[in-house]
């Protein structure tokens, strides 16, 4: 259990069996204790692991837990059931006031997984994540209906696209939480020393040029200076972004945020501030519910671009430019350190136990903080453990090493890993890191698209865990399903592919994440398909990033000329995005307008060695992609909500059209598109009950708020068969090789 506290404390975790459908606390079954790590004067973190006392925890049971806090200098501990803490908001759905959880079931038919990505405080539309709390209010006592796992598949915070009032809050809170102010290195002198500046010198709305010139960041290069105008720079700012995303404690009153508007001149700036403040309030209204939901569902997270900056490690050119500048390197390290403490520590606590790299990281962080950010030796050690690329002393640029046909960033062998694997009695989940394990082409220009996974990453992140699961199954385990959390979509809308290809051809590689997609590096794309089909006959991909929800089925066949029948694999991609960052483009493709340009089925074949002309040799592989249609929105039995007082931006953006056009936009018939959900959403994944694995169907329910009634959530369902498909005829026109 991961917690953030304002005081240095010893934290004790007690886990209990909760009988009578979770209502009655029974015997203690596990216990653990941990000491907080001091990040600052009023910021202390700890992830406590409990050890079972007698028998292991079992599926089919509801467990409750309590946290006891013994603050330094006090004699009496407080717990989650202490009245003073309950006044801040109960984390429970029961009268005993303790949060609860359930383990994944033995049967795949009973497994329920929630996933989603991209939650920006001032993003368009209402925050959808509080709806998970509504689901738990309804189902907390039903072990067979509760979610077993929650996967946040990227962009838990936005380090780059930050609202001015959000940065205003962070700048005010930073010195309060840390008790000191981090001085950021900007210029390096010939003697190796730096010129340091306070983050306060770059107030909200005035960071674009610093981000571009002194950091080397590129999000704002092409006519979008507002993108990085309030970019996060300091360690405190990144920490506060997480604390504000998951807890209501530090949020100031709305009036204080609006009053701060007077500090910024200009009518347009004032208008923008007011709009962002209003959009943030729709976020703030649900944060307490988000905190309770996260306390009651085992939650796993993944690092992605916006956790640092939208263009993070985009290509080799970016790495050389940003990592060779003192401030650029500092910003990347601050973002990575915050990710390690706020996400990775909870994902992989085994990396943070004694004698592991994470424990060394925590020791150096505490030492760096106690020195008020002046201990440069500790700061360099932090860089080692969070995986900052090593620097060439002569050029000042990041060092690379050759790995087969690509270059990879060289880092310390003790650096923490951001990828990991979760296993239960019935399924495995591989969480990939496609951001820090990239392979950059060495024989082309430095802006060429990279492999999102270098060759060794394929072996470590995919091949090794799949082989380990196979070994477990041979020893009696029954892990039936493989899920992979993929930060970047394997397949996306054709219009997105077309725009990115157009931008790339014009050299605008820093627009729309151009090059940051699997299909931009065909070798890596086909290698991923090859790895998956070699080790599994079916795989479920969970992805986000793209700001819409969808379901896609990809059938893959590997041919062997010595065998009559090809090896067949089914890959289903389940996408859920954004939780709070909908935009006009996704609203439009959500509607029936998209039906005028439907996604067509795509097929492709390939050979490792190109065949000679008129050869009848079978291809080495072929695949076919089909978009699963979205069923009409279904009403849910959840109560109506009025948690946001402001009108959703999804409607205010379209106020330029009046009268009948406005009515048409909210009309349900018009909103019932056939492919994607373009409003803020999260997905719930279940498996339809079946007698055989071969005839299974995966069910993907996307929850969202419809324009025709923004108070009542609906769900759109996708159903994808997991049965093997017949091999289609081979088209010699659609040819590729790897």
TrEMBL record:
**What organism does the record attribute this protein to?**
Acaryochloris thomasi RCC1774
Q: Which InterPro entries match?
A: PhoD-like_sf
Query: What is the designated name of this protein?
Result: PhoD-like phosphatase metallophosphatase domain-containing protein
Checking Gene3D superfamilies in the record gives: PhoD-like phosphatase
């Amino acid at each position: 259990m991961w917690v953030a506290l304002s005081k240095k404390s010893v934290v004790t975790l007690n886990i209990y069996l909760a009988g009578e459908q979770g209502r009655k606390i029974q015997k203690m079954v596990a216990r653990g204790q941990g000491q907080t790590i001091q990040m600052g004067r009023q910021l202390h973190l700890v992830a406590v692991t409990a050890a079972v006392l007698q028998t292991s925890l079992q599926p089919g049971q509801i467990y409750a837990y309590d946290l006891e806090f013994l603050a330094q200098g006090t004699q009496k501990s407080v717990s989650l059931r202490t009245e003073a803490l309950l006044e801040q908001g109960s984390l429970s759905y029961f009268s005993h006031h303790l949060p609860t959880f359930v383990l994944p079931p033995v049967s795949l038919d009973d497994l329920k997984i929630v996933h989603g990505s991209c939650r920006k405080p001032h993003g368009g539309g209402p925050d959808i994540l509080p709806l998970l709390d509504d689901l738990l209010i309804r189902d907390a006592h039903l072990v067979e209906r509760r979610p077993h796992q929650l996967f946040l598949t990227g962009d838990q915070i936005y380090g780059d696209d930050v609202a001015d009032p959000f940065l205003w809050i962070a700048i005010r809170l930073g010195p309060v939480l840390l008790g000191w102010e981090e001085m950021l290195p900007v210029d390096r002198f010939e003697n190796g020393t730096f010129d340091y500046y306070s983050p306060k010198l770059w107030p909200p709305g005035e960071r674009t040029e610093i981000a571009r010139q002194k950091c080397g960041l590129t999000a704002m290069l092409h006519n979008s200076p507002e993108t990085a105008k309030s970019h996060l720079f300091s360690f405190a700012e990144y920490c506060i972004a997480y604390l504000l995303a998951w807890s209501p404690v530090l949020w100031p009153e709305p009036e204080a945020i609006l009053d701060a508007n007077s500090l910024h001149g200009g009518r347009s700036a004032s208008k923008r501030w007011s709009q962002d403040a209003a959009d943030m309030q729709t976020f703030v209204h649900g944060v307490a519910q988000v905190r309770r939901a996260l306390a009651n569902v085992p939650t796993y997270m993944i690092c992605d671009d916006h956790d640092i900056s939208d263009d993070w490690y985009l290509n080799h050119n970016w790495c050389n430019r940003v990592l060779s500048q003192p401030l650029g390197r500092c910003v990347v390290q601050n973002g990575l350190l915050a990710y390690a403490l706020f996400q990775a520590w909870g994902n992989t606590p085994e990396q943070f136990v004694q004698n592991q790299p994470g424990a060394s990281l925590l020791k150096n962080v505490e030492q760096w903080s106690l020195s008020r950010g002046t201990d440069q030796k500790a700061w360099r050690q932090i860089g080692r453990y969070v995986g900052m690329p090593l620097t060439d002393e002569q050029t000042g640029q990041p060092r690379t090493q050759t790995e087969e046909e690509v270059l990879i960033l060289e880092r310390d062998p003790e650096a923490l890993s951001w990828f990991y694997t979760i296993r239960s009695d019935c399924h495995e989940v591989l969480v990939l890191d496609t951001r820090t394990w990239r392979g950059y082409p060495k024989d082309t220009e430095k802006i060429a698209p990279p492999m999102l996974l270098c060759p060794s990453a394929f072996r470590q992140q995919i091949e090794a865990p799949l082989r380990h699961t196979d070994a477990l199954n041979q020893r009696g385990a029954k892990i039936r399903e493989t899920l992979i959390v993929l930060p970047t979509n394997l397949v996306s809308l054709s219009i997105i592919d077309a725009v990115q290809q157009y931008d790339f051809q014009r050299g605008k590689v820093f627009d729309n994440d151009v090059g940051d997609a699997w299909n931009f590096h065909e070798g890596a794309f086909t290698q991923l398909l090859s790895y998956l089909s070699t080790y599994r006959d079916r795989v479920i991909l969970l992805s986000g990033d793209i700001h819409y929800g969808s379901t896609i089925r990809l059938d893959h066949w590997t041919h062997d000329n010595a065998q009559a029948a090809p090896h067949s694999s089914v890959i289903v991609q389940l996408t859920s995005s954004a939780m709070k960052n909908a935009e006009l483009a996704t609203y439009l493709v959500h509607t029936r307008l998209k039906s005028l340009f439907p996604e067509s089925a795509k097929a492709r074949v390939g050979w490792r060695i190109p065949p000679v002309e008129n050869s009848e040799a079978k291809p080495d592989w072929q695949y076919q992609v089909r978009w699963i249609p979205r069923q009409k929105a279904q009403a849910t039995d959840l109560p109506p909500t009025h948690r946001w007082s402001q009108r959703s931006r999804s409607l205010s953006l379209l106020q330029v059209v009046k009268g009948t056009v406005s009515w048409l936009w909210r009309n349900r018939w018009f909103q019932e598109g056939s492919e994607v959900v373009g409003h803020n959403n999260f997905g719930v994944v279940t498996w339809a009950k079946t007698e055989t694995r071969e005839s299974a169907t995966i069910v993907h329910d996307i929850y969202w708020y419809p324009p025709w009634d923004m108070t009542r959530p609906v769900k759109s369902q996708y159903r994808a068969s997991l049965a093997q498909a017949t091999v289609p005829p081979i088209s010699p026109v659609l040819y590729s090789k790897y």
